[in-house]
Amino acid sequence: MKNKVLIAGIAGASLGTEILKALVLTGKYDIYGADISKTAYGLYDAGFVETFIADSNNYIPSIIDICLRKNIEIIIPGGEIPLNLLSQGENELAKHNIRYIGNDTNIVSVFSDKNKTFEVLKTHGFEIPITALGNSKENISKIGLPCIVKPSTGTGGSVMVFSAFTIEEAWSYCQFILNAGKTSIVQEYIPALEGEYTVGVLSFADGEIAGSIAMKRSLDAKLSVASKRDDVIISGGYSQGYIDDFSDIRSQCEKIAKAVGSCGPFNVQGRIKNGNFIPFEINPRFSASTYLRAMAGFNEIDMFLESILNGEKSYFNCPKKGWYLRSFQEQFIEKLKSEV
To answer: Which of 13, 48, 155, 325 could anchor a disulfide with 33, C-beta 3.0 to 4.6 Å?
Structure first.
């Protein structure tokens, strides 16, 4: 009998739909989906057994209701917002025997805040970009130019991430982010000339590392670039590129995951500066390139689920080396799904 899994958050070209593809690849799960938007691409994806529209105003009870009606005991966040909501509601879910699949709540809390992230990395002695809160022009002047301005929270897919070439320009972006109700950070810009990498590190629930995988990102396709201005490139949320061993980079990311106490999926983005890998973004969740990783032999979601459901630990060492490229798919829907 297959385990039933609910993916919460299944908008098009999203983490949720990539998780679906990775799970379908195994043939071991009955997969259900939920999203708050009736135009979410995943609601109409044939890979799901059934999909539902969740109540955005009553999210956790709505998700619990879906799980109880369909006897689903496993739920996986399919995006940053569901991740934060479900991790915070983990105890409530557990009361109904629903298992939230993800990293520890404290890890999610810290690494969903970029300011806290770099404070923690600095405390552990890891090299980081020069970083400061964007609450004064004095702080900006300490960073150097050009610089990167972004919200401290909610920057998945490079949302509201800006490059600035003057202090006044950086300050205007800080004010823009503040007016949007968020705190900003200003960060040293690390050029992409020596390479940008996205690295997935999977740790079991007890903190033991199951394995890691690294992709050198290709930044010559529009899909992978959020913005480009002069020689300053901000990568987008859709990673593609070359997967290889990259043992030195993976080793450093594993050290970070181990040092901070990660016990689940942990995704690190960084660039090379003077031969050293410097992380500029960490997300405590499965990555939107999770299906590409599964194609390379690293099906981190299945590995994590097997360790939790069956107590079976498997470890990963060697990826299928090569280029992993992405595109979009289109779908015609005659009539949108109604709330159930």
So the answer is: 48
